[in-house]
# Entry
Amino acid sequence: MFRRVCVTMAGLALVAALGLVSPVAADEYAVDGMHAGVNFKISHLGLSWVQGRFDQFGGEFTIDTVNPEKSSFTLNINPASIDTNNQKRDEHLRSGDFLNVKQFPAMKFKSTAVRPVKGGYEVTGDFTMHGVTKPVTLELVGGHTAEFPKGVTRVGFSAEFTLRRADFGIGPITPALGEKIYAAVSFEGMRK
Amino acid sequence: MPDATLILEGVAAAGGVAALVMLLLGVWPARKVAATAAITPMRRSRLATFAEVLAVAGGMGIGCWWLGIKPNTPPVEDKDRLLFVLLPAAGIVEILAVVWQRRRWVGRTLRLLLALSLPFLMLFGSGWLPAKWTPGADPTAPSTWTEQEALRNLVGLGILLAAVWGLLVWAAQRAGGFAVPAALGVLSAAAGATIMLSGYATGGMIGLPFAGVAAGALLVCLLFARAHSMTGVVGIGTVLVFGLLMAGEFFGELTTTNFTLLIAAPVLCGLLALPPVQRFKPAVRFVVVIVACLVPAGVAVGLAQRSFAAATDESSAYGAASSGSDAPAFSGTPAGSANPSLLKEPAPSRSKDSASTPRDPGIDEEPKRSAPIDPGESKN
# Structure
């Protein structure tokens, strides 16, 4: 009887130990808005760049170190928070001429496929802007982790990509503006 | 802001097409039929209304194309729904109203239904309405109005449109009613200009071709077919002006004062019913109504222009201030030696050829970018 109890206890201990040391397949992170940015620039008259950013955004992502293809990324942006350092221009950009933020109050990127590449991930996903959803591929560079503050594990990524206004139904209001939007995102995520 | 010459060309093209369609489909067939058989006033009215609707469709189509207005298909936003859903619906309503003109309740009911639907369709799927009113939307998404507020505002706007539409059709059917489509033409141009000055250029531009359409259709009617009520033009024009004002108010920066002035202006067409005005000659009645509408519309355009100019001055104020002696110089050219011609903003070319399009540094070549810096690299 004593022997049977010992064997059972040992078995349970082994199972528990295996459970504790086995790697967590996927880590979930929430984007830290304090250490993130969504920036863009667009040509003006072919002479200079108008630079801007979105002040309000959030998102979450999952990093699966065992099966990176199962990782996922979601980023939500409030288009009404556009900021080009000029209030009147920002109001015009929010209007129906451009982003029409009252009609389309959300911009979103949701990944559909993730592939590990050297230095990061190649993330393909659906990007929705101005009510139009198009597939976009981002090369997310980074993925290194740090603990800051103590006890909070964080990981960071950056990406640069180009969008065409016409693809998203944001028409040529004026020939002064370039067709391409050069965007850059950089974010840290805090492990949940 | 679009080029003034381009706008005039677009308005003229819209007017020319509308006049041509009226001649070919309205005046000429009516005369041909009248030469061989007796044509009743009712048949003439149906034919004319049908021709008016087609004239507006043709004129608006050409005018919008000329001005470079490219609505999305299928419709996704306010101006798309105005052009592709609401204006055709208004045309159909006016045709059905004249087909069943002996049963007046048909036309009145259809106008009321469309008027009540318009505010909802203009705001459909937007952040103004509760998200659960939009199929497929995230029901937890925030909205500007609660359900009660949305219902109250939509019904209120719908009733306002129904009242204005009813008044204008009634005024158009009275003696001297040909002033009503003329007034609507003037108002659509004024509303378009005001909305363009209020930060919604592509929305406001939709109003401009209708000014040409109303002028062209009215001219043909007065010259060749004697004046009639032109309820087709009036119905579509009313829906267009109201839709434009809603677009400017809810998706642009049109002020409530200007919205009120521009919605009050067509109501003044009701002056036609006043006995003193009825005693005037037709030409004088026409002038009275147009002037009465022009006053509030002109005030609205003036207020919008003043606000636009103030905003432009404000934007350039820092640049002007920075050119003072105490301010740091931002230009590489020494003060006083600058060539004035270099200070002018290059006028964007109206040509569609790429040869004259300003060069976009982002189009000709990809910007020279180094690989994104990996913040984590420094640790390795």
Summary: Chain B has a mean pLDDT of 80. The first helix of chain B runs from residue 4 to 36.
